[in-house]
Amino acid sequence: MAVRLPRPHRFDVYIGLTGLLGGLLLWGIGLGVRPAGQPMVLLPGTWPLLVPLVVMAGCEVLRRAAPRTALLTATAALITDTVTEGNLVTVLMYTDVMYAAVLYGTPTSARRIPWITGLLTVAGAIVPFAMWREPEALLIGVATGIVAFAPASTGLIVRNHREAAESARLRAEQTALLAEMDRVQAVTAERARMARELHDMVANHLSAIAIHSTAALSLDEPQTTRQALGVIRENSVAGLAEMRRLIGILRDDSGDTESPTGLSASLGQGGNPVAPTLDGLGALVGTARANGLDVTLDAGHGEALPAPVELAAYRIVQESLTNALKHAGPGRVTVALLRRNGSLDITVTSPCGDRDGPRAPGSGAGLVGMRERAALLDGTFEAGPEDSPEGKIWAVRATLPVGEDGGAS
User: Fold this and answer.
1) Which alpha helices (H) appear in 364-405, and where do they start and end?
2) Where is pLDDT greater, at 155 or 211?
3) How far apart are CA 67 and CA 401, in angstroms?
4) 148 DSSP assignment
5) Mean pLDDT of 20-46
6) Contact at 8 Å (CB) between 287 and 317?
7) N or C: which end of the chain has fewer CB within 10 A?
8) Would you place residue 302 in the very low, low, confident or very high pLDDT band (cuts 50, 70, 90)?
9) What residue ranges do the domains of the chain occupy?
């Protein structure tokens, strides 16, 4: 099966046609490289030099599409040209074919051709001089260097520069891609953090509002309705205050509103003073009691903890109490915090409810948020039903690492 050569480049066709026309011009005016009377001119006359000229022009057309084939064919044409009166354009076109063979050829050819032409240049100078002992014999090596080694070396230099530029471009693209991936990941993480904050801030208050509004609508007792409306108002005001706090954080002029790092710090990851701390657990438990839960609190965690740990612990307790308000049955809800072995242990238990459904609708995002908060601090989290002496309970257990010096581990 015949081998089909690639389609030549348009610029290479122009080079080949230009070289052919230039060579024909020199042939037309009878200008050759060597006089007809020289002994090495085996094919005298002006017509024989047209064959290597035409072949060399064809090699110029293939200089980029098939550089190896073009170089081998051009070398044979140049050798043929040396036994004719010669054409300067044929020699010039050969230097361009040699240059293109290194520039557009395979990496192996690009490495070998300069070495081969360099050895031929040295041999072309030493061997004739050793044989004839004439200084003029060195000119053979010089001619070989000009025709072969110089264009091959130039092609190698240009190729190395192009490859270096391409490598730099690829590195820049990879750097930009990695930067974009980091930005997307940072934005995604920040959106998840904001979702957790919004859920934890509002879910507790809205759950209490939903439960007590249901009670107010279902019971025709003025006193019960009044109590329920009081609880609804308290939770509405508290929820509104939480929302205003978050809106103030998002509009804080001290940080870039589009910077995930600045927003993370504002949401409590950097110890912002507006973020809730474990000192507010008493008020949180008081609100849960006002909403109808029987809650006991054991917050024996000791000295102050890092701000991220305190925020995560507060939110885990808050969400656990919200779930207890929606799902727990009658009975005591216990909240216990204990600092030991460089970590903070959090345990919240509540009686498992026997009702058909929750007292207020939920999305299931609370458990996901608590698990994410623990994972961000390299802690552990688990929640599920357990057996206890008091019966079936729902237990939330989290362990948040804390450094021995009070810093997050």
Assistant:
1) 365-376
2) 155
3) 66
4) I
5) 72
6) no
7) N
8) low
9) 10-174, 277-409
Q: Which structure tokens are listed for 379?
A: 């802690």
Cα–Cα dist 110/86, whole Å: 28
The 8-class DSSP code of residue 84 comes to B
Task: Specify the fold of 277-409.
Answer: Heat Shock Protein 90 (3.30.565)
Q: Find tokens 């409590």 and name the residue.
A: 268
CA–CA separation, 97 and 116 (whole Å): 15
Residue 141 and residue 51: Cα distance in Å, rounded? 26
Show the 3-state SS of 311-361.
HHHHHHHHHHHHHHHHHCCCCEEEEEEEEECCEEEEEEEEECCCCCCCCCC
Q: For residues 351 and 330, is the Cβ–Cβ distance under 8 A?
A: yes
Rounded to 10 degrees, the C-alpha dihedral 74/76/78/82 comes to -170
Q: With the C-alpha atoms ordered 408, 277, 286, 201, is the resulting torsion angle positive or negative? A: negative
Q: Which residues contact 144 (CB under 8 A, 6 or more apart)?
A: 117, 120, 121, 124, 125
CA distances from 139 to 8, 90, 121, 136 (A): 36, 19, 10, 6
C-beta atoms surrounding 13 within 10 Å: 14
Token pair 């010039």 in the structure block, residue: 92
327's tokens: 């799902």
pTM score > 0.70 for this model?
A: no
Determine the pLDDT at residue 58.
94
Question: On the CB side of 76, how many CA atoms lie within 13 Å of its CA?
Answer: 10
Cβ pair 378, 347 in contact under 8 A: no
- Cα–Cα distances (Å) from 118 to 90, 95, 197, 334, in that order, read 21, 14, 72, 88
pLDDT of residue 355: 56
Contact assessment for residue 288 and residue 297, using Cβ atoms and an 8 Å cutoff: no
pLDDT tens figures, 178-214: 999 998 888 888 777 777 777 766 666 777 777 667 7
pLDDT per residue as tens digits for the range 43-90 = 666 677 789 999 999 999 999 999 999 999 999 999 998 888 788 999
Across the beta sheet with 294-300, the strand order is: 294-300, 332-340, 343-351, 391-401, 380-388
Q: How far apart are CA 316 and CA 366, in angstroms?
A: 9
Q: How far apart are CA 66 and CA 7, in angstroms?
A: 9
DSSP class of 291: T
Amino acid at 88: L
User: What DSSP state is assigned to residue 145?
Assistant: I
Instruction: Map tokens 């072309």 to a residue.
Output: 124
Highest mean pLDDT among 114-128, 294-308, 322-336, 389-403: 114-128
Q: Which amino acid is at 150?
A: A
DSSP class of residue 38 equals S
